[in-house]
Design brief:
24% helix; 9-stranded mixed sheet
């Protein structure tokens, strides 16, 4: 049987359908479920994704209102039981608000905040662009175990509040908790002021200690297919796309295939 993956649709989600297409492509039995689904329905899935968007219009701050919904209690139970779940962009912000990333304590308190972008230490506003990230400690998570530390992975970003801010306890555990850092096209970690959002320690994505929960600000579902990669990006994936398109092979796996395949294999 295919692993059953639920994508949680919240008021203001806008990436649920492209996330569904990516998950289906990599073999999952995928369903978009609403935030007010019954507990019985929710618990029938093997893993969960909170997609990107602007849940509740980012009122108060991004993810704050969604984090108070009853369904988040079910999500905490699922994570504590070992089920994989990951949040993308707004989903990442929500996971931080409910304390699942990094989830160092049992109380699920807020230990990480996602706040407004900066660039060169100045307010930057909304960003929508392609950037590069590299894996850090890829064996520490069920989502990243097929990546190598030498990988330089193109990915789009699309947010206004993506800057990771950490408390002192999280900073002590960064080697275990960081999954992706912003980097140059050559794989060099970007100085904080040069990252898309001024993120502490140049963090683009992080996990909990158990490795079954991941939050990432860039959008892997928007780079799940080779056809999504822009020709102009300075990376081997642009060359792969050019070669594939010349041969008429447009539906090919993209730069983030390893994430979806790793999750699928873990569940199988």
């Amino acid at each position: 049987m295919k692993p059953k993956l639920a994508i949680i649709q919240l008021p203001g989600s806008n990436c649920e359908y492209e996330t569904e297409r990516a998950a289906n492509f990599y073999g999952f039995d995928t369903e978009i479920i609403r935030w007010n689904v019954t507990p019985e329905k929710f618990k029938s899935f093997d893993c969960y994704i909170i997609p990107g968007g602007f849940s509740f219009q980012d009122r108060v701050r991004a993810g704050a209102i969604s984090a108070k919904l009853p369904v988040m209690g079910l999500l905490v139970e699922a994570a504590d039981s070992g089920k994989p779940l990951f949040g993308i962009c707004n989903g990442c912000q929500i996971l931080a608000e409910i304390g699942l990333i990094p989830g160092l304590g049992q109380e699920h308190k807020v230990e990480v905040a996602l706040t407004h972008n900066t660039r060169n230490n100045k307010p930057y506003g909304f960003i929508c662009d392609w950037i590069y990230v590299k894996p850090i400690n890829p064996k520490g998570s069920v989502f990243t175990k097929y990546f190598d530390e030498t990988d330089v992975i193109p990915i789009p970003v699309n947010h206004a509040e993506g800057r990771f801010m950490l408390n002192d306890e999280v900073k002590k555990n960064l080697d275990e908790l960081t999954l992706f850092e912003y980097c140059s096209k050559d794989g060099n970690t970007l100085a904080i002021e040069k990252t898309p959002n001024g993120s502490t320690a140049s963090i683009a994505g992080m996990c909990n200690k158990k490795g079954n929960v991941m939050g990432i600000m860039p959008h892997p579902e928007r780079a799940a297919f080779l056809k999504q990669v822009p020709f102009w990006i300075q990376n081997e994936w642009a060359d792969k796309k050019s070669s594939a398109f010349k041969e008429g092979l447009v539906e090919q796996p993209g730069p983030w295939d390893k994430l979806f395949i790793a999750l699928y294999d873990h569940l199988k």
